[in-house]
């Protein structure tokens, strides 16, 4: 590959006299080198990484006529045996992101992995670590279910977790949330529930399914995966019975789960109200907060009459001195419930 670029660049220089260069740097210097080159007005036409070094072809766009630059792109990118990004490299990068690290984006993602369609990101986490071979079984099951062929991608991250990427074109109605009047992301959440049911019924194992907003570029995978990992930690800590969740649902819990233990303990000591609540009052308060303080929706979720719910809320106010129907008081009570689980 590099030898071919060198030959082509020399031929282009001799034929056109246009400025073009082949640059080499180490993988650790690549990101800084790329940014510095582009800030100086240069354009990176193509890049390639090996184990020990990074090569890229750069030009000055101002000196190149647009038709010639387009032909240059075609000339250097044409490679009959060019394949999709090395899955091992991509998987190692995704795993590092899932574990909370911030590695540089693999070079392979910057040119060949061309997404025409946005991707929905699902994190699948099994609840039975003793089971083995989940990734291969899930991949076969999901590919058949979505009739996706090679469009579906499943990347194992650990022995118990995998990242599922699905083109939105495979998920009906996801693009029409705003037209149907459903809350943002509601259809994605429904697809997450469907994937959970599929694994439960067909693979005969329980797995949590988390979903993040769709992304349009592979480089956005790192942020999406870190958000999904944060949601996973929050659910396991505060909502252990929850099996399907979205990153936009539990922002408060995600924030609380990321606090250092000492900070969480200090906060919990200033929020004593949860210690006075019964199990029924805790359930009522949790339902009220999850339904945005909407009395009617909360009553339906709890399968109780609206008047029964109002009576319970009055008792909560008597017990704590805080009115859960008021946002600020409800927030304090919700925080008290969360941090009481850290004691």
Task: Please explain how this structure is put together.
The structure is a single chain. The chain has 343 residues and is an alpha+beta fold. Helices cover 48% and strands 15% of the residues. The chain has helices spanning 2-16, 30-39, 66-77, 87-98, 134-146, 177-180, 186-202, 221-238, 251-257, 261-269, 279-290, 295-302, 306-320, 327-340; strands at 20-25, 43-49, 54-59, 119-126, 153-156, 161-167, 207-215, 244-246. The longest helix has 18 residues, at 221-238. Residues 176-184 have low confidence and may be disordered.
Structural class: alpha+beta
Beta-strand percentage?
5-15%
The H/E string reads: HEHEEHHEHEEHHEHEHHHHHH
Biggest sheet record = 5 strands, mixed
Quaternary structure: single chain
**Count of DSSP E strands?**
8
Helix content: 40-55%
Q: How far apart lie the N and C ends?
A: 59 Å
**General shape:** elongated
| Spatial sequence of strands, sheet with the most strands | 5-6-4-7-8
How much is the average pLDDT? 82
Stretches with pLDDT under 50, minimum 5 residues: 176-184
What is the alpha-carbon Rg in Å?
26 Å
How many individual helices?
14
Which features characterize this protein?
five-stranded mixed β-sheet, three-stranded antiparallel β-sheet, 343 residues, single chain
Summarize the structure.
The protein is α+β, with helices and mostly antiparallel strands and 343 residues long. The protein has helices at 2-16, 30-39, 66-77, 87-98, 134-146, 177-180, 186-202, 221-238, 251-257, 261-269, 279-290, 295-302, 306-320, 327-340, and strands at 20-25, 43-49, 54-59, 119-126, 153-156, 161-167, 207-215, 244-246.
